[in-house]
Structures are given as C-alpha cells and as structure tokens.
Write a sequence for this structure.
C-alpha cells in the first residue's frame, strides 16, 4: 500500500506542478506585456522584468486552486486512461483511500502556499511596488505621478508617490477638509521620515484657504501628527490579495477605528484563511469527476472541463465578494458559499460512485 500511495503521490504532484508552471508562465508573459506600456528613461525593460519576476510568488498562490483542480483531473485521468484505477479498485483499494492519497500531496502544496502568503509574497510584492513607484514617480508633483497611492484619515486625504519599508515616504500631498467638505489646506512634502514614533516632513509647501484668499507657507522641517505607522502604510502599497493574513486583520481594525469601510479587507482576510478549503474542495471535485462523469472521456475533454469549472468557480467568487460588500452580506458567507457548493458536489458524486 505504501508503494501505491507513493505512486499516486508522485503522479498528482507532477500533474499539479506542470499545470501550475504553464498557467503562471502565461500570467508572467501577460504582466510583462502590460508593463511595456509604462517604460520610461528610469523604468527600463530590465526593471519591468524584475518587477514581473518578483510577482511570481503571488501568481503561484493565486493559481494554486485552479492548478489543484486541473492537475487532479490530469493526474487521475492518466491513471484512468491506462485502467490503473480499475485495477486498484479490483484489488480492493477503497475509493476513500484513493481520494486520501490524492489529497495528501495537496496538503503539502497548501502548507507551502500558506508560508508564501504570510512571509514571501508581502515582502517580494512590497519591494517590487516600492521600486516601481520610485522609478515612475514625479518628484515635483504627486498627482502627476504614474504611480502612488491614496489614503484617508478622518477629514484628511493623502497621496504618496512611494512608501518604502524603511519608514521613508516620497511625494506626500495632503488635503484637509472641514465637516462641511470645504477645503481648508493643502500641503506637499518632498520626503517624510519616521523617527522615534513621529513623522518628520522635509521641504514642505503648505497652502491655507480662507475667506480672504490663500496663504502659502514653506517649512524646511515639520512634524506630522498622524495615527499612520510605517507598518500600516506598507499595507497600502499592496493589493489586498497580496497582504499577509495578520496584516489584513491589523489594517481592517485600523479602518474600523477610523470609522471607515473595511469590508474589502475583511473579505480578503476570509479569502486567505479559507484558501486551503478552496483547494481541497476543488481537488475533491476533480476526484469525483474522474470516478463519475469523466471516467471514460479523453484527456483533452477532462482538461477542458477542469478549465471551465475553475473559471466558473473564480467568477462566482469574484461576483459574490463585491456583492457581499454592496448588500451588507457578511464576507465570511460570501467566501464560504462557493466552497460548500463544491464540497457538496464532490461528496454527492463520490457517494453515487460508491
């Protein structure tokens, strides 16, 4: 039985790896083509290539559920095509044991991807985004920069050209409003450093708006009082899909303290927490298909079916997520519903096979 488990293990791993490499390669090529439109004197082709390469871990994580589904269909499908699954069943190997032999290698992939999500992807993506922002920024005007990000704290809206992990900001523009949404002041600072728990701005130009007109002031150095820390700001650099689980929870709590909407981050948080269940449910669907509807079809048809099911699953996830935010549905429910449907379909088909 150990030899049989090892054989299924190797077949499943090889199939998932091949599918993952193919999908990730296509994604890398597409991202590189997109970045070609942003090339400048500073942001050269080699820099664009480095940016895309640093995004490989996030691509691997993103497409792992899809690879688990299609890879499971390909791996078990190859065994079914050579009648090896029939021989296993005839030898008394139960369907449950075969299913567990397929899921075991998937658990190793899940463990690796969780480590990627928590420790590798945030660091790699943050470095990539910071480097890209610095090369694309306009040092004299934040709003004309091709890169950067926005944030809101109370009645103050902020734009940063770049956020670096060492506690340095570049191109900080701030707009302060009163409760009636009237603009009170704007300011632009070339850089800001986080020193001893406080932000220090340098080369600041501030414009005050009053009933009598405007007043402009300049400062060589100025202290900036804010609840933002370098850890919170680095979260803004990344897409929610590329943030660590702990960071997502931290920033969602910060937004809640500021009385700001945090559903997007709660949704991303539950998506990452339940990602292992997503992968297992899709692999279970693949196993049930091989022993059920796709038992005697060609390999091409199995791959096509896996691609269609994977696309449908991702579309449902992407539709339910924004819908939950729009209609006030708990994000946990929006993430959990497609998983439960897949688990239900897989278990139902396996029960019918038995």
């Amino acid at each position: 039985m150990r030899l049989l488990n090892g054989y299924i293990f190797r077949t499943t791993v090889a199939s998932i790896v091949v599918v993952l490499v193919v999908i990730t390669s296509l994604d890398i090529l597409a991202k590189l083509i997109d970045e070609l439109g942003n090339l400048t004197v500073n942001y050269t082709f080699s820099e664009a290539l480095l940016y895309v390469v640093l995004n490989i871990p996030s691509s691997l994580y993103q497409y792992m559920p899809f690879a688990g589904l299609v890879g499971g269909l390909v791996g078990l499908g190859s065994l079914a095509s050579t009648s090896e699954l029939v021989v296993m069943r005839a030898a008394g190997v139960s369907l449950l044991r075969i299913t567990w032999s397929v899921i075991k290698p998937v658990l190793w992939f899940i463990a690796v991807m969780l480590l990627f999500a928590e420790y590798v992807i945030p660091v790699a993506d943050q470095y990539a985004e910071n480097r890209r922002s610095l090369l694309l920024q306009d040092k004299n005007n934040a709003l004309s920069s091709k890169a950067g990000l926005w944030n809101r704290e109370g009645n103050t809206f902020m734009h940063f050209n770049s956020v670096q992990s060492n506690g340095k900001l570049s191109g900080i523009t701030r707009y302060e409003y009163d409760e009636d949404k009237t603009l009170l002041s704007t300011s632009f600072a070339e850089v800001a450093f986080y020193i001893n728990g406080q932000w220090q701005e340098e080369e600041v130009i501030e414009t005050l708006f009053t009933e009598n007109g405007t007043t402009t002031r300049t400062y060589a150095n100025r202290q900036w009082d804010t609840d933002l820390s370098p850890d919170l700001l680095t979260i803004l650099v990344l897409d929610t899909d590329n943030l660590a689980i702990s960071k997502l929870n931290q920033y969602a709590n910060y937004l809640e303290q500021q009385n700001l909407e945090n559903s997007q981050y709660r949704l991303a948080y539950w998506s990452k927490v339940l990602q292992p269940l997503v992968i297992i449910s899709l692999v279970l669907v693949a196993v049930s298909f091989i022993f059920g509807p796709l038992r005697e079809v060609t390999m091409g048809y199995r791959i096509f079916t896996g691609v269609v099911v994977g696309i449908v699953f991702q579309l449902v996830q992407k539709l339910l997520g924004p819908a939950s935010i729009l209609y006030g549905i708990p994000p946990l429910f929006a993430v959990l519903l497609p998983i439960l449907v897949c688990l239900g379909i897989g278990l139902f088909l396996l029960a019918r096979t038995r």
Observations:
- The chain has two domains: 2-135+263-353, 155-226.
- The chain has a mean pLDDT of 87.
